[in-house]
Amino acid sequence: CCSTAAGVLRELATPVVAALVASSRRGSGGGGQGGATRRRRGLSVQVADRAVARRALVEHGAAFLDRPSGAVPSTILTRNRHCNILSAPYGPYWRAARRNAAAGALHPSSLRLLGGARARVLGGLVRALGSGAPAGESLHFAVYSVLAVMCFGEGVVAELGEARLRAMQRFQREILLALPSFGVFVRYPRIGRFLCPSRWRQLLALRRRQEESFLPLVAEVMRRKRKAGDDSTFTSYVESLLELRVHEEGGRKVTDGELVSLISEFLGAGTESTAAALEWTMANLVKNPEVQRKLRHEVGTAVAGGERVVEEVDLARMPYLKAVVLESLRRHPPVPFVLRHADGEDAAAVLGVPRLPDGGATVNFLVGKIGRDPAAWSDPMSFEPERFMPGGEGEGADLTCTRELRMMPFGAGRRVCPGLAPAMLHLEYFVANLVRQFEWWEADGDEAVDLAEFRGFFFTIMNRPLRARLVPRTAM
Ligand code: HEM
C-alpha cells in the first residue's frame, strides 16, 4: 500500500513540496507512552520551501507534532521503550518533560546562576589552547563540561574529575557513531535481534553502560541534595527530573529508563550541536581575518579595552558578535534537518496533496537548504555577518520563526529546540572570549582549515576537526 500511496503522492505533488521520496521502509510502532501510539513509517516528504515550512510548523503546527519512530537516538538505543523529549510522542509525558527542561535548567534565570562555573570552564579551555591542545577537541570538551554542570551540578562534576568526564564524553561519541548500524532493530523490532545477534548484544551493552554511567551520578545528586537541604539556589537538571511528576498519568515519577534517556539527550543534543556550531564559527573566523578583526574590536570596546573576561551581561552590547554567530548557524546549521510525522487532512492540505497514506508520512524539513535559499539570501554561500546588522537582509532575524521563517537552525513551532537560549549564550560567550584571548590564524599544510562537512547520524560537523595557529593576546 505504501508504494501505491507514494505513486499517488508523486503525481499529486505541487511545487511547494520540493521532493517526494517513496520509501518502502516500514517502522514499527513499539509501545507508545501515556496512551499515545506510534505510527508506522511509510512515505518521506522533503520540504525545502520556507513558506511551506512555516505554514506546517507554525501555522498548522498541531498536524506536525510527532516525530517519526526510530528517527531519534534514544528510540534506537531503547527500542522505543524509554523516551526523552526529542522522541516522546506528543502527549502528557512530552509536555511534562519539556516544560520541566524549558522552565528549569534551560531557562535564562538558571543560566545566570552558572556564571562562575562557566568562567572556570573557560579558564580551563584557555589554558588548554594556550598549551597547544587541538582546537576542535578542546572546544568540544568545554561545551560538554558546561552541559555536565547544568545537568548534575558543579560539585558532582568536580568530584567526578576531568579524566572520567572525558571518558563519558568519548562514550557519547561512541554511541553516536554506532547508532546508524542499529536501524534494523527499529525497522524489525520483533525479529531484528535474530537477524543480527552480535549487533543486538552490542546495542544492549551500550545501553547498559549508559545506565551504569549515569545512575550512580543521579544517586550522588540525591545524596548531596539530602545533605544540603533546600539551601542551594541552583537546581540541576537531574534534581528537577527527580522532582518531576506526570500529572496527567496519575502523578507518576520519571522511570529510571526515562531518566537515563533524558540525561543522555541533555548531554548529547546539547553538546554535539553547540560544539559543532562553535567549531564552525571559529573556523569561519580563521578563514575571514577581517571579520575576526572587527569582532575583536567590538569585544575590546565592550569590556574596557579587552582588559577583562567577557561576561553574560556584556553580550547584549555586542551586535556584531550575535551577527557572527547567526551567520554561522545559517551557513552551517549543526542539525541539517528537522523530522516530523504528519497525518490527517490538515497536514495533507499544507503539503499540497489531497490526502496522505494510511500511517501518515515522515516530513523532513531541510534546514540547511532553507538557510542557503538564494531567494531569501544574497550570495548565500558566502560568510557575511553584516547581513544580520541594521539595514541588512537578516536584520532582526527571528530564531523561533514565530514572525518570519528565513532560517530555522533550531527548528520551529511547538517542538522548536528548548535549548535555544543556552546555545546562543554559550556560543556568544565562548566566541567573544576566545577572540579576546587569542588571534586565530590559519595553520599550514594538513592543518589548514577545511570547511568540508561530515554528515553524521544527526549532526553536521566539520569533516576535519578544527586546527588553528593561536597567538595569545594577553598574559594568561
Ligand atoms: C547550536 C545548538 C543547537 C541547535 C542548532 C539545535 C537544534 C535543534 C533542532 C533543529 C531541533 C528540532 C526542532 C524541531 O523539531 O522543530 C532541536 C530539538 C531539541 N533540542 Fe536542540 N539544538 C541546539 C542546542 C540544544 C541544547 C543546548 C539543548 C539542551 C541541553 C537542546 C535540546 C533539544 C531538545 C530536548 C530537543 C527536542 C525538542 C522537542 O522535541 O520538543 N538543544 N534542537
TrEMBL record:
InterPro entries: Cyt_P450, Cyt_P450_CS, Cyt_P450_E_grp-I, Cyt_P450_sf, Plant_metabolite_P450s. GO terms for molecular function: metal ion binding; monooxygenase activity. Its main location: membrane. Heme binds at C417. It comes from the Eukaryota. Its cofactor is heme. It is found in: Membrane. It is a single-pass membrane protein. CDD domains: CYP77_89. Keywords: Heme, Iron, Membrane, Metal-binding, Monooxygenase, Oxidoreductase, Signal, Transmembrane, Transmembrane helix. Gene3D superfamilies: Cytochrome P450. One of its GO terms (cellular component) is membrane. The keyword Heme applies. Belongs to the cytochrome P450 family. This is Cytochrome P450. It comes from Urochloa decumbens.
